[in-house]
UniProtKB/TrEMBL annotation:
The keyword Flavoprotein does not apply. The keyword Transcription regulation applies. PROSITE patterns: HTH_CROC1. This is Transcriptional regulator/DNA-binding XRE family transcriptional regulator. Pfam families: HTH_3 (PF01381), Peptidase_M78 (PF06114), ScfRs (PF09856). Keywords: DNA-binding, Transcription, Transcription regulation. SUPFAM superfamilies: lambda repressor-like DNA-binding domains (SSF47413). Residues 12-66 form the HTH cro/C1-type domain. PANTHER family: HTH-TYPE TRANSCRIPTIONAL REGULATOR, HTH-TYPE TRANSCRIPTIONAL REGULATOR SUTR. InterPro entries: Cro/C1-type_HTH, HTH_RamB, IrrE_HExxH, Lambda_DNA-bd_dom_sf, ScfR_C, TransReg_Diox_bact_type. Belongs to the short-chain fatty acyl-CoA assimilation regulator (ScfR) family.
Amino acid sequence: MAERRLYVGPSLRRLRRDHGLTQADMAADLEVSPSYIALLERNHRPLSAEMLLRLSQTYKMDMAVLAGDGGSDELARLQGVLKDPMFADIDLPSLETADVTTNFPGITEALLRLYTAYQEEQLALADRGAEVPASSGARGAEDSDPVAESRRFLAARRNSFPILDDAAERLAQVIASHDGMVGYLKAQHNLRVRRLPSNVMVGSIRRLDRHRKEVLLDDGLDAASQTFQLGLQIAYLDMRGEIESVAAEGSFTTESGERLTRRALASYAGAALMMPYTAFAKAAETRRYDIEALARQFGASFEQTAHRLTTLQKPGQERVPFFFIRVDEAGNVSKRLDGAGFPFARHGGGCPLWSVHHAFRTPRQIVTQWLELPDGQRFFSIARTVTAGGGAYGAPRIERAIALGCAAEHADRLIYTQNRAGQGPDDATPIGVTCRICHRTECTARSAPPIGRQILPDDIRRTSAPFGFSDS
């Protein structure tokens, strides 16, 4: 029987970049020519058994890392990109797509980068169009808004970073072999974990003291928060290369925007160490996305678990796509993530008819709601309050509400829709994204007229809605 030829171009290139090597560096390590490495990365040469063994010994890696997928991640990503409606009128056979990823890995990567850049620019254009009138000729404030920059970066990638998930999954196995993060930090970095009172921490909840070789934690943190902070510290120590690699894909106009993005990526990695992708994704399906049950299984908080559910879009291993939002009682949005195509309000407040704004009436109770947007799209939403801070009498606490939701077609996979007679998509609450772009003229909760509608005078007739509009 003929020997199967192994082409590993994308995997080899990823390995080289993860180690911060040029093709010449890798060639020197393996005692081959740089041109041979280039041919391997372009899939113009198969990988020999001898070279596979040499790679494994040189970079202390499992051979399965290279021999396993043969570019399946890139294939799944490209197939996902080609599902965009803009390509709907083009015949794109799956075999041709597979041929591109196998035989032209460089072109595949270029297309993926270009599509991601396109998504970022679409989001940036939407921001500018919403903020600045077209006639003004001015550039929007969003151009220099670091929070908006970071949110665009995450949204363009649907808050999914397989490179971080893969690295965290491997590292989590090593951590488990040391009986947890405390043991790992001691064994791998000679760092001791100490928990100190808030007055000693002087405004910090975590601090790395390299001089005393200690990781210091505020002892007022609950167990889930302490675990997350340790995971975050490990991410900064051992996943910095992967975080820098992902952040380098962005184009930032402000230094703060870049720093916020790196912080978000580090938090992503820390959560991935607590809730490794494969195990968490399997548990999510088994438990029908029961957030409280998943939180207990993985020792995480309700918010950490809900946040992690938005990241389960690894190509080829996708789960239910969710969107996530966190608001305070004044309606300020402090976190917004979208993996489900929900059209969040980018400026101004959200819709007051959405239950996330009502969750404060029933603290720590889950509130469910079907939603219908003006264009007919339907979503299912889960909302609940969460508490930050506290930990001691008199310590300040912050109450916020979070909402996690998905498109209606995925809702039957969630435990929250089971055994709910008389409650379904047909009972959806009609909401808008924000009053300025919602044209539901009869809405009594409206706070501002929609753009482009002429307001009627009320000297003869006053409508029940806050504003009356002409038909034209």
